[in-house]
Each structure stands twice: as C-alpha cells, then as structure tokens.
Amino acid sequence: MNNIATNTEMVTISIDGKAIQAEKGQNLVDVAKKNGIYIPTLCYFRELNPLGTCRICTVKLNGKHTTGCTVKVDEGMEIEVNTPELLDNRRAIIEMLYAEGNHFCPSCEKSGNCDMQNHAYDMGLTVTRYPHVFSDKIVDFTPERMIMESNRCILCKRCVEEIKTAEGKDVFSFVQRGVKTRVQIDYEQEKELTEAEALHAMNICPVGAILVKGMIQEQPFGERKYDLLGKDIKASPDSCIVRNEDEKFIVATTSLAGCFGCHMSLLDIDTEILDMIDIVEFNKSPLTDIKDFSKRCHVGLIEGGCANSENVEVLREFRKRCDILVAFGECAIMGGIPAMRNFVPLEECLEEAYLNGVTTEIGANIVPSHEDIPKILNNVYPCNEVVKIDYYIPGCPPNAQHIWKVVKSILLCEDYSIAHDEFKYD
Ligand code: SF4
Ligand code: SF4
C-alpha cells in the first residue's frame, strides 16, 4: 500500500476583499485565476519560474506594490488587484513599453498573436500618454533561422531562461547595460536548435521580437490567437453631440503627413455612403475640396502626423474649429511610416532625399528652402503630442466599415464593439 503523506497546508488570503482558501506557497496569479480574478501578465509563463521582469502583474500586498507573479500565498495576506490606481499603473506600464520600443502593429508579423498587443486592446489603449522614444537598436538578420528585432523586445527574459540547446547551452542572452540592454542570439548555438525549438522560441516571445524566417505568420488575419476577442466601448453621455434633430452632423477631414490611404479607405464604404450623406454634411475636407472652414464642426477626422510647420498649423486649427477630434490611421496615432525618419538625423534625411539618393537628379546640389515652403520639423509627431485628441481609429489604413462604425457611434452617441480582426490591415 502506498502511504505517501500529503502535507498540504491551506491558508486564507483576501483578494479585493474576497476571502479565498488556497494552498500555502501557490503562485498568487494562479490562485487569483482559479478564483475568477484576472491578473494580467507578460513575462510570466507556465514553464518558467516567475521572472517578475515586466511588472504588468503589479498588485498591492499588505498595502505595498509588488509583482503578483512572484508572490507565494501565505496566511492572512491582503491583496489588492482591481483598484483604479492599480489598473492605471498596469496600463501605464504597457504604455511605457509601447513608447520605448518601435511597435508599428500594422506592419508587424506578430500582430494578432501578440500578448502585449492583446493587453493593449483589452485595456482599451489606442495611444500612449508618453512621447515615443523611436528606439534605434539592431535588427539582426544574421542567425541562420531567426531574425531578432530588438526594437520590439520588452526584455522579459522568457527566451533567455527557456530556450536551450539539447546540450543545455544558452541561445539567447542579455548584452550591454541600461537603456542599451538587448537580447543577443548566439549564432552557433542557434544552428543547433530543431525547427520545432526555433518555433517555440518565436511563440514564447510575448511580442514580435523573435521571428523565424519563412515561418513568420502562417495564419491569416481572422484566425490568429486573439482575433476573435473584441472590446466594448461605452459611449460617454458627457461627450454626446447636441444638435437639432433636423440638422446634419458637420464633419471636416484633413490629411497631414500621411499617404492619403485613410481617406481612400473612407471612400471605400460602398453603399453605406448613402447612410453617411443622410446624416453628415462635410465642411473643410479634401473629399469636398472645400479649403476653409465655413462653420463650426461637430467632428474633425485627422489623417497623418505632423512632419512640418503647416501640418502643425492645420492640426491646431482643426482643434479650434471642431468639438471632437478623431485621429484615424497609424500615422495620425503614432507617426506611422513618415516617423521612420525619426531614427535618422534630419540633415542626413535631406541629403539622402535631395543630394545623394539613387533617385536624385545628377548634379543636383540644393536642398529646397524658401519662405513659402513649410518648415520641416526635426521629427514627425503623432497628433496627440501636438493637440488633445478625443478618439483614435487604428489601422493602416483602418478598414472602411470600421471607420464608419466608429464615426457613426461618435455622432449618434452609441456604444460599439469592435472585434480585433477589424483592426487589421490590407
Ligand atoms: S510586437 Fe506586438 S505590440 Fe509590438 S508591433 Fe508587434 S504586434 Fe504590435
Ligand atoms: S526577445 Fe522576446 S522573449 Fe526574449 S526578452 Fe525580448 S521580448 Fe522577451
């Protein structure tokens, strides 16, 4: 007869005031989950000891901030998880990760399968409150099978701890210090990984920093890990538009530093354009070719970020003339493709464009400059770094139905719900 004694000790803890019985020493994140309380995590991974590097799981233990994934439950612990302060702390951490790296979701291979992106959707985050750093770390294509995009790495350490060769050798390691810290791949050891192990490395990365060549994104949009999730957005009664019933909504649009693709997408709404013209009158807009505001507008739609002094002036005028300002498309939200020049000094960009580039006219020796030409800014700025923006419609470009669904909900002050796959891109 097998007489193995079990010495499980049960303890009572409190999470957000709810008394919970758990096995002493169990991980707090798991205990909370078993009891229907969700603590978000990024670096925490079931096959690893808790790392506590990302701090998304920040909770308060007996009144002090700590990482939930490193807490082993014990008798009498008082845990706070879902207070307004902690919800904002966690959101701020995600926002900092977005601002610190180069997270251009529309062009990212991990989009739809990315844990960090999913947290952002879940928190209703469409823009970060912090200025973008526009990191300029190495993108390493040298490894035989992988690509390391350090500008997306959040230094969670999952790959360093988890991925080893059959001989137990490290494949990933941290190099350099402080803000320069990055993950480096050992090229020789990387060759030793099987295809399945290499894919495991890509999948264990909670963002799109580790990619496997040729295997980058097999699932189409709509079938990715988080595509079926969505977010319900509640209309705020305070921001409802007040107008007479027989009056149309007045909408203005503009394109700043963008490709005009968002406006083209707006025109793609097909037969719903009939719904639109039923309730909307366009004022200043490239769609109507009306150059100046002739009346106050309920909603202004902004495509593109600010790359020059004229963009800034136009955006400020829109803020003054419109009750509600909506940034639509990635260039308006975070600078988009034009902001890729933020990694390079302005002088070098101008030299490449006008003097030394492969498409430059032979013998050209002038960088255009005239008082009538808008002054180019050192960086391309997202709209919210210049004026207050009320709503954001992500996408590159956002799809037509999505734009109209959001704009209509804003105009009619309705709640709306958008599935993640509607955020995706052509
Ligand atoms: S890693 Fe995730 S958050 Fe970053 S760009 Fe890719 S999908 Fe977006
Ligand atoms: S490469 Fe990915 S798994 Fe590795 S530390 Fe960076 S974010 Fe984490």
Which small molecules are bound? iron/sulfur cluster
Q: What is the number of E strands?
A: 19
Level-1 CATH class name of the largest domain: Alpha Beta
**Which CATH-level-2 architecture of the largest domain?**
3-Layer(aba) Sandwich
Query: Structural class of the secondary elements?
Result: alpha/beta
From the alpha carbons, calculate the radius of gyration and give it in angstroms: 25 Å
Termini separation comes to 65 Å
> Helix segment count?
12
Low-confidence blocks of residues: none
Mean pLDDT rating: 88
Largest sheet: 5 strands, mixed
Strand order of the largest sheet: 2-1-5-3-4
Globular, elongated, flat, extended or rod-shaped: what is the shape? Answer: globular
**Percentage of residues in strands:** 15-25%
CATH topology description of the largest domain: Rossmann fold
Helix content: 25-40%
Within CATH, the superfamily of the largest domain carries the name: NADH:ubiquinone oxidoreductase-like, 20kDa subunit
Domain module count = 3
Explain the overall architecture:
The protein is an alpha/beta fold and 426 residues long. The protein has three domains: 14-82, Roll (Ubiquitin-like (UB roll)), CATH 3.10.20.740; 94-212, 2-Layer Sandwich (Alpha-Beta Plaits), CATH 3.30.70; 230-423, NADH:ubiquinone oxidoreductase-like, 20kDa subunit (Rossmann fold, 3-Layer(aba) Sandwich), CATH 3.40.50. The protein contains twelve helices and 19 strands. It has helices at residues 28-34, 84-100, 115-122, 158-162, 187-192, 195-204, 261-266, 272-279, 309-321, 330-334, 346-356, 400-412; strands spanning 10-15, 18-23, 58-61, 64-67, 78-80, 139-140, 146-149, 172-175, 182-185, 210-212, 230-233, 249-255, 280-282, 297-303, 306-308, 322-328, 376-381, 391-393, 416-419. The strands form six sheets. It has a five-stranded mixed β-sheet, covered by helices on one side. It has a five-stranded parallel β-sheet with strand order 13-12-14-16-18, sandwiched between helices. The longest helix has 17 residues, at 84-100. The radius of gyration is 25 Å and the shape is globular. It starts with 9 loop residues before the first strand and ends in a 7-residue tail after the last strand. The mean pLDDT is 88. One iron/sulfur cluster (SF4) is lined by residues 153-159, 172, 183, 205-207, 209-210.
